[in-house]
Amino acid sequence: QVGQVFLYFQWDSLLLEAGFLAVLVAPLRLLKWRSTAWRAHDGVTFWLVRWLLFRLMFASGVVKLTSRCPTWWGLTALTYHYETQCIPTPGAWFAHQLPVWFQKFSVVATYVIEIAVPLLFFAPIRRLRLFAFYSQVLLQVLIILTGNYNFFNMLTIVLAFSLLDEEHMGRWLGRSKRKQASSESLAWPPSLWAVLSTLLELSAYGLLLYWSIQCFGLEISWEKRLLDSKVAFTYHEFTTWLRAVTLPLVGLGFLSLSWEILSAMYRCACVRGCFWKLWAALQWAVFATATMGMFAISLVPFTYIDYESNGKLWPGIHQMFNAVERFQVVNSYGLFRRMTGVGGRPEVVLEGSYDKQTWT
To answer: Which spans are transmembrane here (predicted)?
Structure first.
């Protein structure tokens, strides 16, 4: 806040919030003689990182449409972006040369990754969360290749790791713990849960594709050899949809967090030894309370995307948020609300002269 509006960027607020969550996620090893890398409540505190990633991506996608920016609504934002951004990379020049139909499709893909895919962050099916992870990483890598936004994109990729699990990380490191389980999963006939999860996964992909085609009028023009796209909904329809889903998304987050808390409580009960069981339960109680508090106050900046939903929050949540607002431990996000550089970008030019004739 020292630089006020001149140095106030959302990725600085994101760094503050992510840094504060790291305090809760980092291991607290008070009893060092019995310290382990795993704790029963790790899933609870790590869930906050996933919730932060969801708020960041979903709000960033929504504000592009609520801002009524004509380039975002016309799907032409990327035809300006690569050449008018602050610090383009060498890859931005090549991206700018891509055909207009591909630029418009890229905007559609951005909407899908930022608005629709984040709903999969809380999916009970593991493969859907992995799909969401790689979608977010793909978007951030493409941004890194075409623009320089300091640590922002790398930090977002780090937050996306909250969508992974130990098994997937183990495969990266070459020491998967479920080789035997994976071989057993190939047995025939498959279990009922395996069939249902596959059907749900395919249904999610199909719904995602159908939503994209319907909302953005995707059509392949074989004669012109291009992919046509356009926004097939109005501003009023979008705001009505946003008003209808904001509070249910809060409920979805609450249910997901409740599941993590109950799962952690069960893991505490499975700890061996009466003393260590009580010690794990005490830590669970402390961190679960802190997590619920952080989730509650984060609802205020999250519901800024729809002020009607914001007004329906319990007044006590607003009071809690007002008490900690100055510390910026929770923030509202909405990146690239309006596309800059449309019609030329104004620049400040300073000139000086020693003889009042030759100006530099």
So the answer is: 14-31, 43-63, 105-125, 137-164, 241-262, 282-305
